[in-house]
Amino acid sequence: MVGTVRLAVIPGDGIGPEVVGEALKALAAVTDGSEVSFQQTEFSLGAARYLETGDVMSDDDLAAIAGHDAILLGAVGGAPGDPRLLGANIERGLLLKLRFELDHYVNLRPTVLYPGVTSPLAAPGDVDFLLVREGTEGPYVGNGGAIRVGTPHEVANEVSVNTGYGVERVVRYAFAAASARPRKRLTLVHKTNVLVFAGSLWKRTVDAVAVEFPDITVDYLHVDAATIFLVTDPARFDVIVTDNLFGDILTDLAGAISGGIGLAASGNINPDGRFPSMFEPVHGSAPDIAGKGIADPTAAILSVALLLEHLGLTEQAQRVTRAVAADIAERGDAKRSTSEVGDAVVARLGA
Amino acid sequence: MVGTVRLAVIPGDGIGPEVVGEALKALAAVTDGSEVSFQQTEFSLGAARYLETGDVMSDDDLAAIAGHDAILLGAVGGAPGDPRLLGANIERGLLLKLRFELDHYVNLRPTVLYPGVTSPLAAPGDVDFLLVREGTEGPYVGNGGAIRVGTPHEVANEVSVNTGYGVERVVRYAFAAASARPRKRLTLVHKTNVLVFAGSLWKRTVDAVAVEFPDITVDYLHVDAATIFLVTDPARFDVIVTDNLFGDILTDLAGAISGGIGLAASGNINPDGRFPSMFEPVHGSAPDIAGKGIADPTAAILSVALLLEHLGLTEQAQRVTRAVAADIAERGDAKRSTSEVGDAVVARLGA
Ligand SMILES: CC(C)[C@H](C(=O)O)[C@@H](O)C(=O)O
Ligand SMILES: CC(C)[C@H](C(=O)O)[C@@H](O)C(=O)O
């Protein structure tokens, strides 16, 4: 790839700007002297911006972001319980709005236990799987409501919406991803015995697409059972495909068993390329440690690797991943500042 | 308590009858010579019965079961993928039907890491918490539907229904349970940032009831974050209160970190006493190991302890729990047959 990539950068709140700073240093280092250059536009969005202006993200912001080739996001969200944020839902109004409006129907969350990382599991084995989480449907659609709020007769509903169109496209993506991996295994996770309508749609879709991928071994787990295997035998997983909410839950657990969400990167992908895809660490804004310069920027740097991979800059992506892996292997357990980690990775990229 | 307890026994499928057999041996041993006697009625329900008769549970079965003082259930469900079961949903038609019809609004799932049990966690700490799962609402209500099934235009919805009435009663139960425990801590788990209507109802209810329990320390975790703490610091939990689906997911994970769901007992409680409460191991029917006499009956035996406790037979309940704990401490990691474990516990109860 030769040319200019227009990159929208949303540092966000809390530790977001700190980790994004290091991620951008790594991006600069790995693309330095190459034929691709990144032209960055920074968007000041998040709780801080809401507190200043009273709006979370305007249509103009959204249109401006959509005009870019890709997005790098740090983390958004204010301090939990901050009374000034009660009226706003930064997650829904910003993060989920971007995912939905930019049709990020694949939420890609690789889980790798890097050598040198301490897992809370006594015997994790060889953990290396890809979780493909649906990003635009399920209980995340915001299709709920309540009546008689605040009375004993209150009824609050949440609707999980699942469509043939929406499920098939993410399932196809997951099969293709499994095809490209050596183990060629795909596990559908759902709760078909209880959520019978949505579960049946997911199950039938996987069964139908499986016919076109005869070399992929397919299995199924209920979401409750999947959490068991994630702690007793995570090495059994290769590619997992699941809905938006189950994917949210399982990827935090996956992050935990592979050394913490300080290492977990993610991509919100629009595979059609109609909209820019967005790359972000799985962790949140962590207001409790913000401003101290101690947040681990590794997940943000690995998100840059996913961004490069998505743009077809595979060699650069691999260099970032290798630099991070080498850094973790050598110093992963040491207490280091945010910039120390970033500098160490950059030093390896320069070498 | 003096008198006769009418106990409905539903051994069910797979390993269900095997583990229930041992649980009943323990029940007989601990009540032998006491002033309470158990009069048992066995109900042949489950996949096997469905395959014979074509119905899962009739209204007459339900009425007959409801006429008892308590229920002991083994496990129900046929082999996954058995084509003869495609038309039936044993879980919905039997297990969930019992929970809903008998208004089991508290699904009680204690998690204890017994000394001698190997956890998959490297450093689990002192794990001893009670998960209070709502049992009659949420995405379990069966309030979904689908249109254009099997076409690319299929839409499959699942509705999570939450009511002020339903949430308040289980939250009150959880606060009372926390009051009776030394640490006096309660953690609400939900996903308030995404499921804003249901989440708001749960959050407001906990905040309101908390005012009446000033000695209880209350905190809140998103469900995704809760899975992280369950593997990095499970000792932080005392009482967890959560909805039906999150409770389902978290209790399997809780079972896994405390040595496997072979040890996890549960009670489906109707605290009003209008209907009989039902006690069952958290595990399923495990068709793969059924008939081999190797299933661990410990969870079923511990479910008997919960049953005794519920009936006010606290001393007997404690004897069962102590016998199981002593058995696990001595032989927990040994490979033993189903009846060897049962016999060992019975021997301790006799002593
Ligand atoms: C912040 C929140 C809305 C978000 C989600 O639930 O998707 C986060 O937990 C994640 O996993 O990216
Ligand atoms: C069998 C299934 C319907 C059930 C549930 O989801 O509640 C089980 O997983 C449980 O936890 O008791």
UniProtKB/TrEMBL annotation, chains A, B:
<dbReference type="GO" id="GO:0009098">
    <property type="term" value="P:L-leucine biosynthetic process"/>
</dbReference>
<feature type="binding site">
    <location>
        <position position="224"/>
    </location>
    <ligand>
        <name>Mg(2+)</name>
    </ligand>
</feature>
<comment type="pathway">
    <text>Amino-acid biosynthesis; L-leucine biosynthesis; L-leucine from 3-methyl-2-oxobutanoate: step 3/4.</text>
</comment>
<keyword id="KW-0560">Oxidoreductase</keyword>
<feature type="binding site">
    <location>
        <position position="133"/>
    </location>
    <ligand>
        <name>substrate</name>
    </ligand>
</feature>
<dbReference type="InterPro" id="IPR050501">
    <property type="entry name" value="ICDH/IPMDH"/>
</dbReference>
<keyword id="KW-0963">Cytoplasm</keyword>
<dbReference type="InterPro" id="IPR019818">
    <property type="entry name" value="IsoCit/isopropylmalate_DH_CS"/>
</dbReference>
<dbReference type="Pfam" id="PF00180">
    <property type="entry name" value="Iso_dh"/>
</dbReference>
<keyword id="KW-0460">Magnesium</keyword>
<keyword id="KW-0520">NAD</keyword>
<feature type="binding site">
    <location>
        <position position="248"/>
    </location>
    <ligand>
        <name>Mg(2+)</name>
    </ligand>
</feature>
<dbReference type="InterPro" id="IPR024084">
    <property type="entry name" value="IsoPropMal-DH-like_dom"/>
</dbReference>
<keyword id="KW-0028">Amino-acid biosynthesis</keyword>
<feature type="binding site">
    <location>
        <position position="252"/>
    </location>
    <ligand>
        <name>Mg(2+)</name>
    </ligand>
</feature>
<keyword id="KW-0432">Leucine biosynthesis</keyword>
<keyword id="KW-0464">Manganese</keyword>
<feature type="domain" description="Isopropylmalate dehydrogenase-like">
    <location>
        <begin position="6"/>
        <end position="345"/>
    </location>
</feature>
<feature type="site" description="Important for catalysis">
    <location>
        <position position="140"/>
    </location>
</feature>
<keyword id="KW-0100">Branched-chain amino acid biosynthesis</keyword>
<comment type="similarity">
    <text>Belongs to the isocitrate and isopropylmalate dehydrogenases family. LeuB type 2 subfamily.</text>
</comment>
<comment type="subunit">
    <text>Homodimer.</text>
</comment>
<comment type="function">
    <text>Catalyzes the oxidation of 3-carboxy-2-hydroxy-4-methylpentanoate (3-isopropylmalate) to 3-carboxy-4-methyl-2-oxopentanoate. The product decarboxylates to 4-methyl-2 oxopentanoate.</text>
</comment>
<feature type="binding site">
    <location>
        <position position="224"/>
    </location>
    <ligand>
        <name>substrate</name>
    </ligand>
</feature>
<feature type="site" description="Important for catalysis">
    <location>
        <position position="191"/>
    </location>
</feature>
<dbReference type="GO" id="GO:0051287">
    <property type="term" value="F:NAD binding"/>
</dbReference>
<dbReference type="GO" id="GO:0005737">
    <property type="term" value="C:cytoplasm"/>
</dbReference>
<dbReference type="GO" id="GO:0003862">
    <property type="term" value="F:3-isopropylmalate dehydrogenase activity"/>
</dbReference>
<feature type="binding site">
    <location>
        <position position="99"/>
    </location>
    <ligand>
        <name>substrate</name>
    </ligand>
</feature>
<protein>
    <recommendedName>
        <fullName>3-isopropylmalate dehydrogenase</fullName>
        <ecNumber>1.1.1.85</ecNumber>
    </recommendedName>
</protein>
<dbReference type="GO" id="GO:0000287">
    <property type="term" value="F:magnesium ion binding"/>
</dbReference>
<feature type="binding site">
    <location>
        <position position="109"/>
    </location>
    <ligand>
        <name>substrate</name>
    </ligand>
</feature>
<dbReference type="InterPro" id="IPR023698">
    <property type="entry name" value="LeuB_actb"/>
</dbReference>
<feature type="binding site">
    <location>
        <begin position="284"/>
        <end position="296"/>
    </location>
    <ligand>
        <name>NAD(+)</name>
    </ligand>
</feature>
<keyword id="KW-0479">Metal-binding</keyword>
